């Protein structure tokens, strides 16, 4: 089995569509590890697209949880502004309510994150009680780490890379060949920014995308 594993799409339809076109015919199963929604202008469309692809595993992230509860629990003013704008327009609650919490493949457990933590390439994970191999996301930083003989992979983010906003990251896991490949591509983030402007996103949201470094 060959898996295309990704997450943190965050309403970025152009990046998601480019991923699917780029990897067309190169996988047996899709696994989305959460946060399909919020931030970008196309939460509904991204949820619909993933729902229409057969044999796709769809997992919950913290932003699905927020949309399902109708409340963003954090204090970050930028995220609150995104949530208030995007949640009002979201119509696919019944779809994301069916998302799973985790999914196990041969060597890895795939889930949004571990213990609700943002795990970065340099995060001290010595106290996190990691006892198996994981594929996660959440922090929007791609990495491949070994800790006490366990492997911890972060796929990065398809829709909102924290280092370079126009870089989309994901992985391929090929069980037959026993390989895992970290992959990425560049997409046109101006498509997202222009749509945000057209949809009258708050200025704080538009400025967030405009000020991020690009490749």
TrEMBL record:
Domain named Calcineurin-like phosphoesterase: residues: 1-101
InterPro entries: Ap4A_hydrolase, Calcineurin-like_PHP, Metallo-depent_PP-like, Pesterase_MJ0912
SUPFAM superfamilies, alphabetized: Metallo-dependent phosphatases
Domain of life: Bacteria
Protein's name in the database: Metallophosphoesterase
Species: Salinimicrobium oceani
